[in-house]
Automatic annotation (TrEMBL):
This is KANL3/Tex30 alpha/beta hydrolase-like domain-containing protein. It comes from the Bacteria. Residues 23-211 form the KANL3/Tex30 alpha/beta hydrolase-like domain. PANTHER family: TESTIS DEVELOPMENT PROTEIN PRTD, TESTIS-EXPRESSED PROTEIN 30. InterPro entries: AB_hydrolase_fold, KANL3/Tex30_Abhydrolase, NSL3/Tex30. It holds the Pfam family Abhydrolase_11. SUPFAM superfamilies: alpha/beta-Hydrolases.
Amino acid sequence: MNIDVPTDLGPGRLVVSPAASARAVLWLGHGAGGGIDALDLAALADALPACGVTVVRYEQPWRVAGRKVAPRPAALDVGWLAAAPHVAEIAGGRPLVVGGRSAGARVACRTAESVGAAGVVCLAFPLHPPGKPERMRTDELLLPALPRLVLQGERDTFGSPDEVRTAIADAVGVRVAAVPGADHSMKVLKSSPVDATAVAQLVVDEVREFVESLV
């Protein structure tokens, strides 16, 4: 089911994968370089409804319009928050978990408390630009006073799992899980001991357990 979302930046779009008997809703945003068909987002939308979790993926207005470059973070927040009333209606009082991949994870962290989220899922959180560890975004990851799950590829040039753990060493309520062999896109090399199917299953299992812990 698709729901068009009017915003000041043009229309966005919610793509809903409903659970027959939903216990929770997981609302996910995409990254700045791709859309809602990313490996991890698609895997969650395919698998979690059978576990009682409705998955709602949001296409930002820039993506719906066919543009290839994302706007600045403030505009991403505007587009995301415009969809919040629609997502709340879908949730119908059930626990709402927000999240996303890369830039979508940043948006979710910045807005989680304002939309009444119970927790945050960060897929490939961009801790810093590649090769620029001095430009940390730790403050965004620590912003919500909510349970957070961070799934980070071992080869992620935007921040490895160990870098994330070090950056948030004193934080409470944050679980950092490594994805073996995966890069920022959750893709693995042909020589990797795990394949794309295994990566997708790991993501699904980690997120399912996290959401279930909040229900």
